[in-house]
Design goal:
Helix 2 runs antiparallel to helix 3. By secondary structure, the chain is mostly helical. It has 22 helices and no strands. It folds into three domains: about 270 residues, no CATH class; about 35 residues, no CATH class; about 230 residues, no CATH class. It is globular and about 80 Å long. The two termini are about 30 Å apart.
Length: about 575
Amino acid sequence: MFRLLISPKFVGFKNGLKRSRSKIKIKVLTLTGTGILFWLALFFLSCRVLIYFSSQEIIGDILARHLLAMALLIFFSLLIFSHIITALSNLYISQDLELCHSSPARLTEIFLSRSFYTVIDSSWMLLVFGLPVMMAYGFVYHAGLDYYLSLIHVSFPLIIIAASLGIMLIMVLVRFFPAQRARDIIMFLSLILIVILYLLFRFLRPERLVNPETFISVAQYLGALKAPDSPYLPSHWATEILWARLIKYTGGHVLNHLLLWSTAFALVVIDIWMAGLIYFDGFSRAQEAKRRSRTGRKILERIVSVITRPLGPDMTSLIAKDVRTFFRDNSQWSQLLLLGALVVVYLYNFSVLPLERSPIRSIYLQNALSFLNIGLAGFVISALSVRFIFPAVSSEGQAFWIILSSPLSPRRFLWSKFLAYLLPMLVLAEMLIIYTNYLLKVTPFMMALSSVTIFFLVFGIVALGVGLGAVYPNFRHENIAQVATGFGGLIYMIISSVFIALVIMLEAGPVYTILSTHFRGEEITHLQWIWIVGSFIMVIFLNIFAVQRPMAAGLKAINGYEG
């Protein structure tokens, strides 16, 4: 029966592959090539960092091991939270759960099948993005086959432990808070994540790693570099195993292997035992109706009507509907707490930079960091867009046929989605750039350049989210969060990252020329001016292309949609 319960996932994947064969081969090859380039870029960047670490005497290997421990700890923490969010849908809110519970299958089989879905949905994207970093370690340290086998061997128990902890927590929460009262649950989970992010960030204490002068001796400094490790964390056990393979340590790590797998199996058994006690009670409580609050509804509608008044009644109505839907779906608006935590951590990073202790002249370093911050802020906006903007078209759900049959044209439908998200993203992006530049005390030129660049970058990032969201829609989703974790979400993150990188590369040379000549008191030559102006013109055309092409592709996809 368990095999029958999990078969829809594999059948759906198989049918999706069959449908993809009918698509244009050039498009498939283009997307595949883009994904490979993104992997190679992440792999190359990781290699450069590790090579630099390995070139440092005494502390080089310690820094590399410290980075490996941090990477595994972050991946493990994100896996836990991802499983918490996904388990809430798969175990309690999915539309096919009533059919499963009315079948002859045992409760344990149903629970294990839904847990299997949770692991698949929550783990694959994180593994895709984490694999290039792990492969870079193997390349730089010339690891043998045993390292790659250990990497596979370690990944499975880590995923099982994270999944078991996430599922265990959601079962306990739903036992006391009905699943349909998603506001209470998700807000509680969001607060937990904020606390975890803060404690994790303070636990790592990154500002201490760049200031060895505050330590009495080298031994104390090296001891501080090891501080993030904890022998009670599964990520620590995995780090010990992988690092031993990287440095060709012949000693056995049987204890770490036993700790990983015994913890994984023990948590699975505990989850099954807890499911027998409280899972069905939680599922029954999940069927209760939920009450909605009307507090603040009139104020919200007035704000939306004032902002959208120049757009016409059709687009105004659609944007107002999207805003109401967003705030009615507690799993959506409550994630604004996570956005707040991300912004706080992002700004905190810049507030603790020890620029005064850098061997590089402060004014050079400040402006260099300001320029690199454009790409970093763009990536943050892309990460938020894949969660909020990419699912915008799919959020219409199975009622999308109403949009197609309404007097509203598909073009105005898409542009209404674009305009609904453009202003919030512009405000957030400018806030990040301006405040971080204020902390860095950059020159007026860099303040203006970074503000204008991120302004136009947001147009392309939002257009990519709306356009690709229309190309890769999922109108039959059970949870809107699943849309962002699909294949289309991965393609969006890759393409938006490439777009941001191209803009940064086009501006890097001209910005360096302008700043270097300014600091040396020299004049920019006519040839240099031609190159500078040409580069910025290319940036403008690239931004226009990033807005026009995705929206055109999304419009074509909607016009060809047959339901």
